[in-house]
Amino acid sequence: MKIGFVGTGVMGAAIAQNLLDAGHELTVFNRTKSKTAALVTAGASWADTPKKVVEQSEVVFTMVGFPNDVKQVYFEDDGIFAGSNEQTILIDMTTSKPSLAQKIAEYGASRGIKVLDAPVSGGDIGAKNATLTVMVGGQETAYQQVKPLFEKISKKVTLFGPAGAGQHAKMANQIMIAGTMTGLTETLLYTKAAGLDPHKVLDALSAGGAQNWSLSNYGPRILDDDYTPGFFARHFLKDLRIALQEADKMGLDLSATANAKRLYEVMVDVYDLGDQGTQGLINTYSKVDKENK
Ligand code: NAP
C-alpha cells in the first residue's frame, strides 16, 4: 500500500519505520527535514509539503506535536486536505483535542474524505517495538480498511466510537499516567529519604501491587539520571490541560489530575524543563528543595 507519514519525531519515525519494514511504499514529510534522513536511507521518499505527501499516498498518518501543529498540517494551503481526494484515508495519531478531531472529520466528510483519530500509548519503546496500544475514533468502514496497518505497529487496537472518541480514550490513559508518574516520583523521593536501596525497591515493587508501566520504564531511567525524552514533559502538560478542559466540560472535578498538571507546569513553565522526558519531574522537586533551604 502507498502510505504517507507527516511528523517523524520520536514516535512518528519509529512507527513509519515499522510500516516500511512491513513492505509498504512510504512518502514522508517533517518540519525539520533531517529527521526523515534515516527513513529515506531505508527506502522512503521525501516530499516537500504535506500536500505532496498525500498526492503520493492512499493512507496518510500524521504524528505531530500539538493541536496547532495538527491544524496547520491539515488546513494550510500546502496541507493535507489540499492534496486529498475521495480515495484518501487520513489518520491523525497526534495526542490532540477531541473537538479538533471532530472538526477534521466533519471537514473531511463534507468532501468525501475518510478521517480517523488514532492516538497511541506505549511510549518510544512501544513505537520501536510495534507494541503500541491504538485508540481509534471515526467510522467503522474506514477503521476496517486500515486495521491491518494498525496491527503492524501495535499489540492492541480498539475502535471506541465516532470522531473524537480515540482522543477521549487517550485522555483517560493520560489521567492514569498522571497518577503513575507522580507516584513514581514521590516513591523514589521517599525511598531515598528513608535510606533504602532504590534499585532493590524498584525490583520489589515491580513484582507487587504497585507494578505499573511508568515504574518499569521510567524508574530505571531516573536511577541512571537519564532525562532524555522518551515522552517530552511539554507534551504531557499539553495532554493534562486537554484532559482537564474536557473534564470541566463534563462537569467533573479531577483534583488529583489537576495537581499533577500543576506539578508539570512548574517543571515546564517555571523551570523550563519541557524538553526533558516526563521522568524529569523529579528534578523539579530537587529544585524546589534547594530554593527552600
Ligand atoms: P516529537 O519528537 O516532537 O515529534 C513531533 C514531530 O512533528 C517533530 O519532528 C516535528 O518537527 C513535527 N512537526 C510538528 N509540527 C509540524 C508541522 N507543522 N509540519 C511538519 N512537521 C511538524 O514528539 P513525539 O514524542 O514523537 O510525540 C508526537 C505526538 O505523540 C505528541 O502529540 C505526543 O503527545 C504524542 N505521544 C508521544 C508519546 C511518547 O512517548 N513520545 C507517546 C504517545 C503519544 P520538528 O522536528 O521540526 O520539531
UniProtKB/TrEMBL annotation:
Keywords: NAD, Oxidoreductase. The active site is at 170. It holds the Pfam family NAD_binding_2. Transmembrane segments: none annotated. Residues 164-283 form the 3-hydroxyisobutyrate dehydrogenase-like NAD-binding domain. Residues 2-161 form the 6-phosphogluconate dehydrogenase NADP-binding domain. GO terms for molecular function: NAD binding; NADP binding; oxidoreductase activity. It comes from the Bacteria. Belongs to the HIBADH-related family. This is 3-hydroxyisobutyrate dehydrogenase.
